[in-house]
């Protein structure tokens, strides 16, 4: 039996290396003979198990998607029930119950009359792409054709489709494609808006409160209000990309709630289905939606084959039910505090650690004196102690599923501490 398992693992790894192309991955390193890919077999709650039976805390919530843990009985049951009805049907010309109920629920998560419509797509990139196209067409439909450029920020990441990527400004990811997408002006701070002629601008796009892929960079408090004010003064639309921050990550359901600021368009994905299935939503205000009414020449000609996918919508509805049943948001403050205290003692007097940044359960831990690979090496070492997470350069990211317990937070920090100690001494 043991041989059989070893055989299976070897065969799978070989086939992986023979056929797959992984995202954001240096493939010659991945395929090197001394690299053994980690093959995940199953998950349970906050834990992932590999094909050899090793167990890891899912320290980056499966690339920032998972909310209530893996194999959650409520979401699993909802999916099985939906599977018995239908997995997918077109959303062009037909509709379905889970999508209708989910749209109603999503609109209801915001103060009354904030958003009036939900447009479904597939992932974070398409949710942003859709918001960009809505914003451009809105300007055209309302006689503002001179508005042609977007404003985004240094360090931004909004996805990899060409429009969303044009908003991004992380050299390793975006430099190669610069100038090939839409016109975007990148700012360092909201103060720079004062020097900009708003009459040419379609929209300002931001990851509210915290930039994830930049290495968990926190924006100054009050920035969202400043953006809202400038956009109101200049007639520019405000787009919040809550793909990472949405669904409780920052301690509230949505990051914008921390400053009580609502955008004109919002992109949601990742945690929308609890981290189960690819589904995204772009939420629009009534003002934007109504501009698209009044004939075929005003129609929003945009969509994807899997828009409104019933399985994804059933998972998302179940995830929102779990938020209510398990009082997920109510339990967050204690976890956030516990993490803050844990990080403080973790970092205290440790010369190998630099700045530690936390926003809810979103954490970036800078390693001092790194060469850009130190983070990855420390994460690889922490893996042997039972923590699976990723680094961005020399910043280790810890962003667990919201279901994590204080004891599991301690377990994760202990594993990370051991991993770092092993690498830096
Ligand atoms: C803020 C933000 N927007 C958009 C995206 C793109 O999402 P996806 O990878 O689902 O296309 C990401 C992914 O990390 C993100 O962090």
Total beta-strand segments: 17
Which strand order spans the largest sheet, edge to edge or round the barrel?
Answer: 4-12-11-10-7-5-6
Structural class: alpha/beta
Assigned CATH class of the largest domain: Alpha Beta
Helix content: 25-40%
Radius of gyration: 22 Å
* CATH topology-level name of the largest domain: Aspartate Aminotransferase, domain 2
Question: Brief overview, please?
Answer:
The chain has 425 residues and is α/β, with parallel strands linked by helices. It is 38% helix and 17% strand. The protein binds pyridoxal-5'-phosphate.
Q: Mind explaining what this structure looks like?
A:
- There is one protein chain.
- By secondary structure, this protein is of the alpha/beta class.
- It folds into 2 domains: 38-68 and 327-424, Aspartate Aminotransferase, domain 1; 73-325, Aspartate Aminotransferase, domain 2, CATH 3.40.640.10.
- The chain is built from 14 helices and 17 strands.
- It has helices at residues 2-19, 27-30, 61-64, 73-85, 97-108, 124-141, 162-167, 171-174, 223-234, 286-291, 310-325, 328-347, 374-384, 406-424; strands at residues 40-44, 47-50, 55-58, 117-121, 149-153, 184-187, 201-206, 210-211, 217-218, 237-241, 265-268, 280-284, 353-359, 362-367, 387-388, 391-392, 395-398.
- The strands form 4 sheets. Strands 4-12-11-10-7-5-6 form a 7-stranded mixed β-sheet, with helices on both faces. Strands 1-2-3-15 form a 4-stranded mixed β-sheet. A 4-stranded antiparallel β-sheet has the order 13-14-17-16.
- The longest helix has 20 residues, at 328-347.
- Pyridoxal-5'-phosphate (PLP) binds at residues 123-125, 128, 157-159, 207, 212-213, 241, 243-244, 269-270.
